[in-house]
Amino acid sequence: MGNRGMEDLIPLVNRLQDAFSSIGQSCNLDLPQIAVVGGQSAGKSSVLENFVGKDFLPRGSGIVTRRPLVLQLINANAEWAEFLHLKGKKFTEFDEVRQEIEAETDRVTGANKGISPVPINLRVYSPHVLNLTLIDLPGITKVPVGDQPADIEQQIRDMIMQFICRESCLILAVTPANTDLANSDALKLAKDVDPQGMRTIGVITKLDLMDEGTDARDVLENKLLPLRRGYIGVVNRSQKDIEGKKDIKAALAAERKFFLSHPSYRHLADSMGTPYLQKALNQQLTNHIRDTLPAFRSKLQSQVLALDKEAEEYRHFRPDDPSRKTKALLQMVQQFSVDFEKRIEGSGDQVDTVELSGGAKINRIFHERFPFELVKMESDDKEMRREISYAIKNIHGIRTGLFTPDMAFEAIVKKQVVKLKEPCIKCIDLVIQELINTVRQCANKLATFPMLREETERIVTSHIRDRESRAKDQVTSRKIIQLYNTYSQRRSASKSVIRKGWLTINNISIMKGGAKEYWFVLTAESLSWFKDDEEKEKKYMLPLDNLKVRDVEKSFMSSKHMFAIFNTEQRNVFKDNRFLELACNTQEEVDSWRASLLRAGVYPEKSSSSGTTENFSMDPQLERKVETIRNLVDSYMAIVNKCIRDLMPKTIMHLMINNVKDFINAELLAQLYSAGDQNALMDESQEQVQRRDEVLRTHHALKEALAIIGDISTTTISTPLPPPVDSSWLQAGQGGGRR
């Protein structure tokens, strides 16, 4: 009956399996067990039935075992069976056991030969069995049958690997004697997960069906194709015997007679056959449990320690205690407030590395998205000039004006400022959306109390929406106020600089020093040059009235590129010079200066009308006015844009973000109390109730398991594992299994 003093180990593991299965999980503990692995029709089912002494497993063609069957054999005075999924119902007729296995298999997998890794737990009590726990796994197949998927072979292999890859699992590799043992799928799978052979036991079936003149003596003696734990031969009932309802007791007697009478096996008869296999498995499983017990106990203890604190809280938990609900409400609101502030202000704990969220995303809206939206609002230059032209003409009416009208500037600026409303409103909308997302993420931590989560999210979101309308009104009023600052801003805008840079005056006589480089500053009103870029010593200031630009051919004696400025009224431009010849190092610099002069209203000599498309563009005076207002509008809008880029984040921070934080800290709890019934507000979710029950049941099962294991003596001397053997034949995958 295995090691004396250790008989209780296998029933202990059985009780642990039942306990953990009944709570719906295994607590991440690998319980010691034996997995039966083999190909289809290898005789796995017959071996198990011989252990029990009853016909109780489904039979037929193709894949018959389609779910793992956890078979617990328990030595008892009476004989019956029971299923874990039908606890309390005793089966005394084993035909009913077979029918229940088939029905339970079909319930999960359907009737189309599909497979499932969900096990069926069957416990058999009998005076004819030794304490043993085995798992009957689906037979390894190569070809799909019926409605089976094309990858059925891989599915079965994956299922088998789930069990045999565990270090706590012994592997019973069943192979028919009338096939090539070196190509056994069962032994190959065992070798993959147990290369040292520490856990693999070989079983040879169908010894009575070998060809005449052949035998498996060398294999059973572990001389040919050796395994560390060796091989045990068995003789099962033939298909004819099964159909003829041959009694298993008679079959076991016939098996004993076969080994005693066969000339190749009679010297091995005492270590062959089903009774010896059952005894050996009992012995080896008991030893295996003993060997794995220290690590198993350590795992149990770590699981218990991990659940101790939570289980202690749940054990004294009273769901309807008003003081508990009040305390929980305060804690939840405080945690919500802390989480919200951390997400907005930033925190070193629980950093999201996948995407931006909370304060980081709002910062990106302020400093990247909002400026981009402002840039998108900039008007097309040609369209702007046309609008200014129409504004000037409409203001002058029938008369021809001599001066640039201020009203044209105001009309254009008002129109440009109104366009800024869209990006400002969009900025607020983006911040609102991110605030609501942040509230939702923080509220997810209140999932234990669904009503509290829903009410908190509703109250804070409603407050955010209320602040949204106020923020939009405030931003709009700020833009209106900005319009009243037109004149003060215009004064600084009119002095704004269009361009600065070094230019060489090329037409200074040699007597006066020749060509010389100066620092030039171009504004909407004048072109000035200084001795250097510190702009302290001004050399000259040239008004832009009646000036134009002309090309100057490059001199063969100079490497510089040139252009000239002259007066259309034939007046001297600079001292005694009718034109001012300016030089740059590259043609790109010349083109850039010409473009800047064009913005200031200084047009090319022959193409002054190229900038606009209407007849009025031929009027130099009108063009001058258009360019003046255009420069003023650009300068003014640059100042407005800068102010808005600076004010919008500050306004939103004050009116919305900081306000929402203050509301959560100061008002949320009061709003929750006034929202309705606090008892209903703090009702737990069904998931939390289930979680609490699961933790308590799991903790109880683990503590009970530790107590049981603590009573077991592990000082009994077990049978030592046989020494290693040369199993390289499994890797070679070739060689005869018979002779």
What does this structure look like?
The structure is a single chain. The protein has 739 residues and is of the alpha/beta class. Helices cover 50% and strands 13% of the residues. It has helices spanning 9-22, 44-52, 94-109, 152-164, 185-193, 217-220, 239-243, 248-261, 274-315, 322-345, 359-376, 381-396, 406-419, 421-443, 450-484, 486-494, 587-599, 620-666, 668-675, 678-681, 686-710, 728-732; strands spanning 33-38, 69-75, 80-83, 120-126, 132-136, 169-176, 200-205, 231-233, 497-505, 516-523, 526-530, 538-543, 547-552, 561-567, 579-584, 603-604. Strands 3-4-2-5-1-6-7-8 form an 8-stranded mixed sheet, with helices on both faces. It has an 8-stranded mixed sheet with strand order 12-11-10-9-15-14-13-16. The radius of gyration is 47 Å and the shape is elongated. This is dynamin GTPase. Its EC number is 3.6.5.5. Residues 496-602 form the PH domain.
Give the proportion of residues in helices. Answer: 40-55%
Overall geometry comes to elongated
The description of the largest β-sheet is: 8 strands, mixed
Name the average pLDDT. Answer: 77
Strand order of the largest sheet: 3-4-2-5-1-6-7-8
Low-confidence stretches: 1-6, 24-28, 486-494, 607-618, 733-739
Q: Classify the secondary structure makeup into a structural class.
A: alpha/beta
Gyration radius, in Å: 47 Å
Beta-strand proportion: 5-15%
Number of helices: 22
Distance between the termini: 35 Å
Number of strands: 16
Protein name: dynamin GTPase
EC number: 3.6.5.5
GO biological process, one term: synaptic vesicle budding from presynaptic endocytic zone membrane
GO molecular function: GTP binding; GTPase activity; microtubule binding
